[in-house]
Amino acid sequence: MTTTLSLEQEVARLIVEALHLETAPEDIDPEAPLFGDGLGLDSIDALEIALAVSKRYGFQLRSDDERNHRIFASLRALAAHIETHRTA
Amino acid sequence: MPAEPAFPLTARAPGEVLFRRGAEPVTTARFLAEAAGLAARLPAEGPVLNVCADRYLALLGFAAALMRGQVTLLSADRTPQRLAEIAARHGARCALSDTPASLPLPVIAPAAEAGPEAPNPAIPAARIAAIGFTSGSTGEPQPHAKPWGALVAGARAAAARFAVAPGTSIVGTIPAQHMYGFETTLMLPLHGGGAGHAGPVFYPSDIEAALAAVPAPRLLVTTPLQMRALLGTGIALPPLIGVISATAPLDAALAAEAEAAWGAPVREIYGATEAGSIASRHTTREEGWEPYPGVAFTIGEEGASVTVPGLPAPVPLADRLEWCGQGRFRLAGRLTDMVKLAGKRASIAGLTRILTAIEGVEDGVFLAPPDLDRNPRARLAAAVVAPGMDAKAVLAALRERVEPAFLPRPVVMLDALPRDAVGKISRAAIAALAWKR
Known about the structure:
Chain A is mainly alpha-helical. Chain A has one domain: Non-ribosomal Peptide Synthetase Peptidyl Carrier Protein, Chain A (Orthogonal Bundle), CATH 1.10.1200.10. In chain A, 50% of the residues lie in helices and 0% in strands. Chain A is built from three helices and no strands. Chain A has helices spanning 2-19, 43-57, 75-85. Chain A is globular, with a radius of gyration of 12 Å. Chain B is an alpha/beta fold. In chain B, the strands form seven sheets. A nine-stranded mixed sheet of chain B has the order 3-2-12-11-13-14-15-16-17, sandwiched between helices. A six-stranded mixed sheet of chain B has the order 7-6-4-5-9-10, with helices on both faces. In chain B, a hairpin with a 3-residue loop joins β15 (266-272) and β16 (276-282). In chain B, α1 (28-39) crosses α2. The termini of chain B are far apart. Chain A binds chain B through residues 19-23, 35-37, 40-48, 50-51, 54-55, 60-63, 65-68, and chain B through 53, 79, 99, 199-206, 209, 225-226, 228-229, 232-233, 235, 341-342, 376-377, 379, 391-392, 395, 399, 403-405, 407, 409-411.
């Protein structure tokens, strides 16, 4: 549980830094959508996050049928996806 | 009486490969049969709101609507509110969607089902085949009608300009509903050449996988942002015959890096939703844009306009243009307050109006950064006077009314907007506050 929490915080920091967000990493609601009503990110951000994730965690994000909506459903979902696929 | 000018639905021979779903080829004959099958499922009247993410299903939906004489509505903005607004305003009778969609109209899930052999119908050139949308200064979607003849002429011009051979695999990364994506990945296979790829293709790894799944020669149709991400992740791509970029200015250094990495020329398209693709250039070699065949630019004191084959009237452009010899022009900045982000346009004045209409906001202004025309990652900023609100609350209110690409980053909260001696808002002072880092 501790590792999950710290990865979540790490990913929050990665997002804030990669996207130059005004929000503090700890202010990102881990359950809120990253896109749309939540953080309000867009496709430019999705590519930035994909780039930052590939550099930091050594794997590539992919589109599936639901596009990025499942992985980017929330900070928690993204952290869980990284936890499963990371090679670095 | 002379016959009304018309073009067939597709200029491709029945046995040619028109599209690929993954690695599976779809011939023109099969496409026509599947489109006719879908046409039979459409309501008696249009228009049809086509939101399909799968590029082949989007093409089938467009073709089916054409077969029924119905107009297709194409919105690059996929937010449910915007789609609902467009559907209501244009009286859409159904939506075609391959993903679950909550829309206030009947939704049909298109399927590629083999049906009996179907004819290749002739479509009148003057018939409105599709309507694309942009955001106007009021923030409301502005419709831009596309006669079939204009779409066909554009596809032929693109095929000639980029020398797209029939066997070329076209992998596109832009949604089919974006006019650039629609022209290069749907219309180009129908009337130019090459075989489209159904997708979805968005992330660098998707692009690599899609290219690897199709035979050479391969043409990649993408954006500066995706090129930057591809080069940044260092993914190796299969051999390419060419790269086409549009939606945002392509930095010459990025173009050079891409050409070195992929060993193929990178060419840029200049266009607008209203006019379609109208010029191109080989970015590492040429500053000037070469008009598409048949397209005529008029550059005057008041701005530039373009006459496009198949469109009834000249289209005014949002950029300042200058002739630079040999019939080419260069872009010399924005003429109006229109800004373009993530391939979409909005008016700074319109955004400011939306901002100041928020309850609790006393004053405010949107601002474009100085590098907006060069930096595809650039964001707008806003300075806001709203006692009792913080930046988060302002953003939350804007989020309901403004597309994500145009949300300000940063939001600078002030006690009063800085003004100069004559009371005019000092944009320079706000810019200094917004982009101090």
